[in-house]
Amino acid sequence: MTSSSSAASSGSTARTPAARLRELLSQPSIVVAPGVFDGISARMALQAGHKALYQTGAGTSASRLARADLGFLGMSDIIGAAGVSIMADPTMMTPVIADADTGFGTAPQVARTVAEYHRSGIAALHIEDQVQSKRCGHLDSKQIVSQSEFLSRITAAVHARDSLPCSPTDRILIIARTDALAVSGIDEAIQRLQLAAAAGADMGFLEGMRSNSEVEQAFAQLPQGWPMMANCVTGGKSPLWTAKEAQELGFRLAIFPCAGLFPVAKALLASYTHLMHDGIGIEAETSKEKALVDLGGADPMGLRNFFRDMGLEHEVEIDRLAASGAGLGDV
């Protein structure tokens, strides 16, 4: 069965994953995309019934490069990982939303990123306004580029999208992300998204919102009907919104980047530790009590601890030595 015939049999007329994502966004319920980072996580998310996937930058950096989310990823890293997630669905029609960091350069590089992501089958990407040496949006000491440079990135992305040789509904979606809230405040962040919406971005992403009141302020000042994405990060700076709560706040898309990442890391550590101490992996443990794995729960330090395990402190120390105490700063 081909992708087109499979989509038709499920009641969808979409011809590309991007078109399928647009269909999902047009429906009343919020689109929920769990974070995936390799073939196993993508397969399990699909088996659980999810209709969209999020190729998390932090998870991809960890799984492919064994590094914390400090700007190590290149375009080919994400495209390669997202390609595995896309192939996890035999029909290749499940939308994959992918992190694109800063677009991996200035306007020409951003345009190439959009074209390459689209060609690989990625349904949507988000481009942010951090400097090239970026870091996870829920770490401290972020730096952002000027409004004009951010707008040039979004404009280049929109132009590249509109130049794709296919119908508008089949084209990759551009999600404009701003990290300005943590650096310059809510008013600057909203203004940047207003400019992105006027430039033609398909969706907005205000990273690191700290309260429901900030969400309400953003929605009140952004164009009515312009869809927004919620980043539901466990142990991050935003409230622990459920999918229902995110929908009630007005979001159209909610990504849960840690939903697979943290439990997998905890389970791996438990099993490898069990093997070290008991000479057998926890998957072969016959005692039910010993086979239990603590997956961590809503750990307020979950994100920071995960990055620590991925070598965050090592990278920070290298930066401090090279920059005489400057550089990354406190993360």
UniProtKB/TrEMBL annotation:
InterPro entries associated with the record: ICL/PEPM, Isocitrate_lyase_ph_CS, Pyrv/PenolPyrv_kinase-like_dom, Pyrv_kinase-like_dom_sf
Domain of life the protein comes from: Eukaryota
- A Pfam family of the record is PEP_mutase
| Record keywords | Lyase
Q: Which species is this record about?
A: Pseudozyma hubeiensis (strain SY62)
Q: Respond yes or no to whether keyword Lyase is given for this record.
A: yes
Q: Which Gene3D superfamilies match?
A: Phosphoenolpyruvate-binding domains
Q: What is this protein called?
A: Isocitrate lyase/malate synthase
**What Gene Ontology terms describe what this protein does at the molecular function level?**
lyase activity
Spell out the PANTHER family in the cross-references. Answer: PHOSPHOENOLPYRUVATE CARBOXYLASE (PTHR42905), PHOSPHOENOLPYRUVATE CARBOXYLASE FAMILY PROTEIN (PTHR42905:SF2)
